[in-house]
Amino acid sequence: MDFLKEIDKQSTKNNAYKLLKQYRRFSRIAGEEYTPKLTPTYTLEPKTVRSYNSGSSQTEALVTRRVSAWNEMEAIMKAINRVIDPLVRQVLIEKYCKWQIRTDCEIYMELGYSESEFYRKLERGVIEFAEAYRGGELLVFSR
Question: What superkingdom does the record give (predicted)?
């Protein structure tokens, strides 16, 4: 059974890191100016999708690009929200979803974590994110 196979953690984490690093880019393409609302339980709430009228093929291409970026952002937000521990979720949000890019050191100092604790939470969160993203699409299994 596939779901009982051993996960190749390094490859899975690499897939998740690549996707999470794209979040800000998707946000810019979708036309979002700010990060999603962060609730007290450290979950993301997406903004409403804007509707566009397409009048030309150029406009249609822009709308398609924006909608695709929005859908990708939404899938990322849903997967982050499925991370069990709200403190682990907060680490992912602070590192990948905030508009302002900050160093890991700035983040873990602000959150009051040691460097090693921060990276343990990040690793755990990235694995859980990969499991939750589009039904496990980012998972890589050992042979």
Answer: Bacteria
